[in-house]
Structure prediction request, 165 residues.
Amino acid sequence: MAANPSRLAVYPGSFDPLTNGHVDIIERGARLFDRIVLAILVNIDKAPLFSVDERVGILREVFDDHPNVEVETFDGLLVDYARQRGADVIVRGLRAISDFEYEMQMALMNRHLNPDIETVFMMPAESYTYLSSRLAKEVFALGGSITGLVPPVVEARLRAKGRRA
Ligand code: PNS
Prediction:
Protein backbone atom coordinates (compact mmCIF):
# COMPACT_ATOMS: atom_id res chain seq x y z
CA MET A 1 0.00 0.00 0.00
CA ALA A 2 1.30 3.47 -0.85
CA ALA A 3 2.31 5.65 2.07
CA ASN A 4 -0.47 8.02 3.01
CA PRO A 5 1.11 11.27 4.22
CA SER A 6 -2.11 12.72 5.62
CA ARG A 7 -4.84 10.38 6.74
CA LEU A 8 -8.36 11.76 6.83
CA ALA A 9 -11.12 9.91 8.67
CA VAL A 10 -14.86 10.56 8.68
CA TYR A 11 -16.91 10.06 11.84
CA PRO A 12 -20.55 10.06 10.70
CA GLY A 13 -23.66 10.24 12.83
CA SER A 14 -26.81 12.07 13.76
CA PHE A 15 -25.27 13.64 16.90
CA ASP A 16 -28.78 14.53 18.12
CA PRO A 17 -27.47 15.39 20.61
CA LEU A 18 -23.72 15.03 20.92
CA THR A 19 -22.95 12.91 24.01
CA ASN A 20 -19.78 12.46 26.01
CA GLY A 21 -19.54 9.01 24.41
CA HIS A 22 -19.21 10.70 21.00
CA VAL A 23 -16.70 13.16 22.46
CA ASP A 24 -14.61 10.25 23.77
CA ILE A 25 -14.52 8.57 20.35
CA ILE A 26 -13.77 11.86 18.55
CA GLU A 27 -10.83 12.57 20.87
CA ARG A 28 -9.46 9.08 20.26
CA GLY A 29 -9.92 9.54 16.51
CA ALA A 30 -8.25 12.95 16.56
CA ARG A 31 -5.18 11.34 18.16
CA LEU A 32 -5.13 8.46 15.69
CA PHE A 33 -5.74 10.29 12.40
CA ASP A 34 -4.24 13.45 10.95
CA ARG A 35 -7.68 14.95 10.49
CA ILE A 36 -11.16 13.79 11.38
CA VAL A 37 -14.37 15.16 9.88
CA LEU A 38 -17.51 14.95 12.01
CA ALA A 39 -20.15 14.36 9.35
CA ILE A 40 -23.71 15.08 10.46
CA LEU A 41 -26.32 13.17 8.49
CA VAL A 42 -29.07 15.40 7.09
CA ASN A 43 -32.01 13.06 7.51
CA ILE A 44 -35.23 14.55 6.22
CA ASP A 45 -37.27 11.59 7.49
CA LYS A 46 -36.46 12.16 11.16
CA ALA A 47 -37.83 14.92 13.37
CA PRO A 48 -34.63 15.96 15.16
CA LEU A 49 -34.38 17.57 18.56
CA PHE A 50 -31.66 19.96 17.37
CA SER A 51 -31.71 21.30 13.80
CA VAL A 52 -28.73 20.45 11.61
CA ASP A 53 -27.47 24.04 11.98
CA GLU A 54 -27.72 23.82 15.77
CA ARG A 55 -25.79 20.54 15.76
CA VAL A 56 -23.09 22.01 13.52
CA GLY A 57 -22.80 24.94 15.96
CA ILE A 58 -22.58 22.66 19.01
CA LEU A 59 -19.94 20.38 17.50
CA ARG A 60 -17.85 23.35 16.32
CA GLU A 61 -18.04 24.92 19.78
CA VAL A 62 -17.06 21.72 21.61
CA PHE A 63 -14.11 20.99 19.28
CA ASP A 64 -13.02 24.59 18.78
CA ASP A 65 -9.67 23.77 20.43
CA HIS A 66 -9.02 20.73 18.20
CA PRO A 67 -7.49 22.10 14.97
CA ASN A 68 -7.65 18.69 13.25
CA VAL A 69 -11.39 18.22 13.89
CA GLU A 70 -13.75 19.56 11.22
CA VAL A 71 -17.55 19.62 11.17
CA GLU A 72 -19.66 19.16 8.05
CA THR A 73 -23.05 17.83 6.97
CA PHE A 74 -23.79 15.19 4.38
CA ASP A 75 -26.70 13.49 2.71
CA GLY A 76 -26.86 10.50 0.37
CA LEU A 77 -24.46 7.61 0.67
CA LEU A 78 -21.76 7.87 3.31
CA VAL A 79 -19.15 6.21 1.10
CA ASP A 80 -19.81 8.76 -1.66
CA TYR A 81 -19.37 11.60 0.81
CA ALA A 82 -16.17 10.02 2.20
CA ARG A 83 -14.72 9.55 -1.29
CA GLN A 84 -15.59 13.09 -2.27
CA ARG A 85 -13.80 14.36 0.87
CA GLY A 86 -10.75 12.18 0.14
CA ALA A 87 -11.23 10.07 3.28
CA ASP A 88 -10.43 6.36 3.27
CA VAL A 89 -11.48 5.62 6.85
CA ILE A 90 -14.90 5.66 8.50
CA VAL A 91 -14.79 5.75 12.30
CA ARG A 92 -17.57 4.23 14.36
CA GLY A 93 -17.88 3.65 18.08
CA LEU A 94 -18.77 0.22 19.47
CA ARG A 95 -20.25 0.32 22.96
CA ALA A 96 -21.53 -3.19 23.49
CA ILE A 97 -22.39 -6.44 21.75
CA SER A 98 -25.83 -4.97 21.04
CA ASP A 99 -24.22 -2.44 18.67
CA PHE A 100 -22.35 -5.12 16.80
CA GLU A 101 -24.94 -6.47 14.38
CA TYR A 102 -26.07 -3.07 13.09
CA GLU A 103 -22.50 -1.81 12.86
CA MET A 104 -21.30 -4.95 11.08
CA GLN A 105 -24.11 -4.64 8.53
CA MET A 106 -23.25 -1.01 7.86
CA ALA A 107 -19.51 -1.66 7.67
CA LEU A 108 -19.94 -4.56 5.26
CA MET A 109 -22.49 -2.71 3.14
CA ASN A 110 -20.14 0.26 2.95
CA ARG A 111 -17.29 -2.10 1.98
CA HIS A 112 -19.53 -3.62 -0.71
CA LEU A 113 -20.24 -0.14 -2.03
CA ASN A 114 -16.61 0.98 -1.87
CA PRO A 115 -13.91 -1.56 -0.94
CA ASP A 116 -11.28 1.19 -0.69
CA ILE A 117 -12.87 2.68 2.40
CA GLU A 118 -12.16 0.91 5.69
CA THR A 119 -14.36 1.13 8.79
CA VAL A 120 -12.41 1.41 12.03
CA PHE A 121 -14.23 0.67 15.29
CA MET A 122 -13.23 2.24 18.55
CA MET A 123 -14.50 1.59 22.05
CA PRO A 124 -15.36 4.48 24.31
CA ALA A 125 -14.40 4.58 28.00
CA GLU A 126 -16.36 1.94 29.95
CA SER A 127 -18.31 4.69 31.72
CA TYR A 128 -20.04 5.54 28.44
CA THR A 129 -20.97 2.04 27.32
CA TYR A 130 -24.60 2.51 28.39
CA LEU A 131 -24.93 6.02 26.98
CA SER A 132 -26.83 6.93 23.82
CA SER A 133 -28.32 10.14 22.40
CA ARG A 134 -31.77 8.57 22.66
CA LEU A 135 -31.42 7.80 26.38
CA ALA A 136 -29.87 11.19 27.17
CA LYS A 137 -32.87 12.87 25.49
CA GLU A 138 -35.32 10.64 27.36
CA VAL A 139 -33.69 11.19 30.76
CA PHE A 140 -33.68 14.95 30.21
CA ALA A 141 -37.31 15.00 29.05
CA LEU A 142 -38.34 13.10 32.18
CA GLY A 143 -36.50 15.45 34.52
CA GLY A 144 -33.39 13.33 35.24
CA SER A 145 -29.87 14.68 35.42
CA ILE A 146 -27.74 14.47 32.29
CA THR A 147 -24.73 16.22 33.81
CA GLY A 148 -21.63 14.29 32.84
CA LEU A 149 -23.46 12.50 30.02
CA VAL A 150 -23.36 15.34 27.50
CA PRO A 151 -21.02 18.34 27.11
CA PRO A 152 -22.08 21.41 29.18
CA VAL A 153 -23.05 23.31 26.01
CA VAL A 154 -25.52 20.55 25.07
CA GLU A 155 -27.04 20.57 28.55
CA ALA A 156 -27.38 24.37 28.41
CA ARG A 157 -29.04 24.23 24.96
CA LEU A 158 -31.43 21.53 26.17
CA ARG A 159 -32.37 23.63 29.19
CA ALA A 160 -32.94 26.62 26.90
CA LYS A 161 -35.33 24.51 24.82
CA GLY A 162 -37.20 23.40 27.94
CA ARG A 163 -37.99 19.95 29.28
CA ARG A 164 -40.33 19.00 26.46
CA ALA A 165 -37.45 19.50 24.00
O1 PNS B 1 -24.75 7.24 14.79
P1 PNS B 1 -25.96 7.11 13.91
O2 PNS B 1 -26.91 8.23 14.11
O3 PNS B 1 -26.58 5.76 14.06
O4 PNS B 1 -25.40 7.24 12.40
C1 PNS B 1 -25.94 6.51 11.35
C2 PNS B 1 -25.21 6.87 10.03
C3 PNS B 1 -25.27 8.36 9.76
C4 PNS B 1 -23.76 6.46 10.13
C5 PNS B 1 -25.89 6.05 8.90
O5 PNS B 1 -27.26 6.25 8.97
C6 PNS B 1 -25.39 6.41 7.51
O6 PNS B 1 -24.26 6.21 7.16
N1 PNS B 1 -26.29 6.99 6.69
C7 PNS B 1 -25.97 7.38 5.33
C8 PNS B 1 -26.73 6.55 4.30
C9 PNS B 1 -25.90 5.38 3.80
O7 PNS B 1 -24.78 5.52 3.36
N2 PNS B 1 -26.53 4.17 3.83
C10 PNS B 1 -26.00 2.95 3.28
C11 PNS B 1 -24.83 2.33 4.02
S1 PNS B 1 -25.26 1.43 5.44
Notes: The first helix runs from residue 20 to 32. The mean pLDDT is 94. Residues 16 and 48 are 7 Å apart (CA to CA). The radius of gyration is 16 Å.
